[in-house]
Write a structure and sequence with these properties.
Elements lengths: L1 E7 L4 E2 L8 E8 L2 E9 L7 H8 L4 E3 L5 H9 L3 E3 L6 H9 L41 H8 L8 H8 L35 E11 L4 E4 H4 L3 E4 L7 H7 L7 E6 L13 E5 L14 E5 L5 E9 L3 E5 L9 E12 L1
Parallel strand pairs: 1-5, 5-6
Antiparallel strand pairs: 1-2, 1-3, 3-4, 7-8, 7-9, 7-15, 10-15, 11-14, 12-13, 13-14
Length: about 325
């Protein structure tokens, strides 16, 4: 697998405006780890043409800051998965993606499907390791599908051809409706005030259900989770706990659904004609795919029923309606 990151060569960080990036850092991945990397110039290639540029380089996943709906559709049409909302060091962003822990600034998203062994998250939005997993927001999917699937706008067929049906490890729930959005990825607004708010924190955590079932653990992966505290990158209860912890503290928290992934929403389960979702003919129950809103956002859905003419999809997070328990250890805090 090859991952591309929009790259700012002077700083080594994720460049925030996809269509204006002057370079990509390409990572060759083997067995879930970075084998090698190289920086390639875009040579002035811009916007939708970048999809062809990346496809020519054999890229299957793009990690980036912000991008617009047109660019998202162009990448999807080229079979390239997009995980937007990333910021900070590019190498760290790829490591976070591989760990299932990449979080989107503002909304969220997580990725992976069921093959990385990292507990429940693998399939979520692009957001981080649990957040999608534990930490992120996951609830935007409930609203996102209203804009694309299940309750499509004027032209359902066109809408789905533009944004739906790409399988793969899906990833993000980006916050970016447009490349020139006013949302500040480098300095996101504080959602939960506290002494660590707006700072980069590193944590270890273990997540369990009330019956003791473990659904996620950074300890098991031996890879701490890094995120900006207090800005909504994580699910509310996780973020609220970390924002006031001291380095070295270990806390155990119990979260009601409203502080985790919310209650299950019956309206987030919807049925489509297969003709509305190109590529759906071979989908099976239990499989996860990513749908898009047509505005640059994507979100995971799970196939729950299939017949000759229709397919039923569930956009609820897999932990929606669940009470969750976390052991959280704060390892470090630094200025973002």
């Amino acid at each position: 697998m090859k991952i591309a990151v929009t790259y700012q060569q002077e700083t080594g960080e994720v460049f925030q405006h996809f269509g204006r990036t002057e370079a990509f850092k390409l990572y060759d991945i083997e067995d879930g780890k970075i084998k090698s990397s190289q920086v390639v110039s875009t040579d002035g290639t811009g916007h939708e043409a970048l999809a062809g540029f990346l496809a020519d380089h054999g890229v299957s996943v793009v990690v980036c800051g912000g991008l617009g709906g047109g660019m998202m559709n162009a990448l999807s049409a080229s079979g390239i998965e997009v995980c937007s909302g990333a910021s900070g060091n590019a190498d760290d962003a790829v490591e976070a993606y591989l760990a299932g822990a990449l979080v989107n600034a503002g909304v969220s998203c997580s990725h992976h499907d069921h093959e990385d062994g990292s507990g429940h998250h693998k399939n979520h939005r692009c957001g981080h390791s649990h957040g999608e997993h534990c930490g992120h927001h996951g609830r935007e999917a409930d609203h996102a599908h209203e804009n694309c699937c299940g309750h499509p706008a004027e032209d359902e067929s066109e809408s789905h051809e533009d944004c739906c049906g790409h399988h793969g490890k899906g990833c993000c729930g980006h916050h970016c409706e447009d490349e020139d959005s006013d949302f500040d990825y480098e300095h996101p607004p504080i959602v939960f005030p506290g002494k660590n708010a707006g700072k980069k924190v590193k944590t270890h955590y273990q997540g369990t259900l009330n019956d003791g079932t473990a659904f996620d653990s950074s300890y098991d992966r031996n890879e701490p989770l890094e995120f900006i505290a207090g800005v909504g990158m994580m699910i509310p209860g996780f973020d609220k706990a970390v924002v006031d912890m001291n380095v070295g503290d270990v806390v155990n928290i119990h979260l009601a659904p409203e502080d985790a992934y919310g209650e299950r929403d019956p309206e987030a389960v919807f049925t489509l004609e297969k003709s509305q979702l190109p590529g759906s003919e071979d989908l099976t129950i239990g499989q996860q795919i990513y749908l898009g809103t047509g505005m640059g956002q994507s979100f995971p859905v799970t196939v729950t029923a299939v017949d000759a003419a229709t397919i039923t999809l569930d956009a609820n997070h897999e932990l929606a309606g669940q009470e969750l328990n976390f052991k959280i250890e704060l390892l470090s805090v630094e200025e973002a």
